Amino acid sequence: MFLHLLKNKINVIALTSCLTLSAFWIDLLTKKYYAQDPGGWDTALHANTLWHMIHGSLYNSFLGASFLAEHCTFLSFLVAPMYWLHPDPLILQHLKVISFFIAAYLFFLILKKNVHPFLALGGMLAFCLAPANIGMLLFAFNYEPFCIPLIFFIYKSFDDIRYVHFLVGCFLLAMVKEQMPLVVMMFGVFALIFRREQKMKWGLVPLLMGIIIFIVEIFVIIPLARKGLPSTEFYYWGRYAQFGNTPGQIISFLLTHPPALWHSFFNEINIRWFKELFDVWGILSVLSPHILLLALPLFIKNLLSGWSQEHSVTGYYYAATFTPFIFLAAWNTLNYIKNQWRLPIQLIALGGMFIHAFIFFPLWSMTR
């Protein structure tokens, strides 16, 4: 009787859990901020942009140019009104926390459609404790983690066959950062493959949206914003300088040197990154490669990068952008099990997710 009552109230329990965890993290980051740990370069950089925005300028004092000279974080135009109401860098960390736990609740709703409600709740909590997500929450503010709720929103809209919601989510995701239009493009490819009806409507529009926005941002907007600086090229091509100095040189080198490409993907640093990100239960994700396919541009970006921070799971925010795809893929694999072993295997997998998270608890306490 009691379990039946809890099952009927599971949405409320999940939402209350998210609100409670949000309050915990907001309190923790507030104390961290006032303990003379304001969040470093990223938080200061974005706060500076927003301060100039609410005063009618796109200038950034750190960059000596428009904020678009570094990244196309157009989502900042939506954040600026909130910053105008409360111009404090701390609000950026609070927004990051709130957006993450919105993502967690969306993940719960996605899971509940296919698994037992209590398992859906457990899966949501395991997602909240994922080492990459904890590292992101502890790190400074950046716009990239805003992709997490948007990825879940797009996936849920696709699953619920809500086309307008799907397109709105795709557009907002493309506004997060210049690499995210490539994920929008992959949602278009995903729809072309797996949408049984109206393939062109669901697939071609996000595919073209992603390609066009990416090209415009990388090859038009950023070079224009960098006029007057030592170089008008996208600054972050430098992270791939081992392959060439321009996009053309980089692509040409990778296509004509397969051994170098293989070594770059599967070197010692990347193998460790894979292990920490996926761990033992991550094999479940690999068994649903069609969902991991959505993150293919992000995997290529990270694995080929010469920037050490992009190969850290718990130290920064980079790895957190992969967690929606990994968790969606893992639970999609578990949903294939239809026999009497379904519930025991799902419980074992859920236990593995929690163990993976708890292994990293000492690491968090040592590094933060």
Could you explain the architecture of this structure?
- This protein is mainly α.
- Helix content is 68%, strand content 1%.
- The protein has 20 helices and two strands.
- Strands 1-2 form a two-stranded antiparallel ribbon.
- The mean pLDDT is 89.
From the structure above, extract its key features.
single chain; 368 residues; mainly alpha; two-stranded antiparallel sheet
Look at the helices and sheets and give the structural class.
Answer: mainly alpha
Can you tell me the residue ranges where pLDDT is under 50 for at least 5 consecutive residues? none
Task: Give the helix proportion (percent range).
Answer: 55-70%
Q: Shape from CA axes? A: globular
Rg calc: 21 Å
SSE order and pairing:
Elements lengths: L1 H7 L1 H25 L5 H14 L5 E2 L4 E2 L9 H10 L4 H23 L4 H13 L1 H8 L8 H13 L3 H12 L5 H15 L4 H27 L21 H10 L1 H8 L2 H11 L4 H4 L2 H4 L3 H9 L18 H12 L7 H18 L1 H7 L1
Antiparallel strand pairs: 1-2
Short structural description:
The protein has about 375 residues and is mainly α. Helix content is about 70%, strand content about 0%. The protein has helices at about 1-10, 10-35, 40-55, 75-85, 90-110, 115-130, 130-140, 145-160, 165-175, 180-195, 200-225, 245-255, 260-265, 270-280, 285, 290, 295-305, 325-335, 340-360, 360-365; strands spanning about 60, 65.
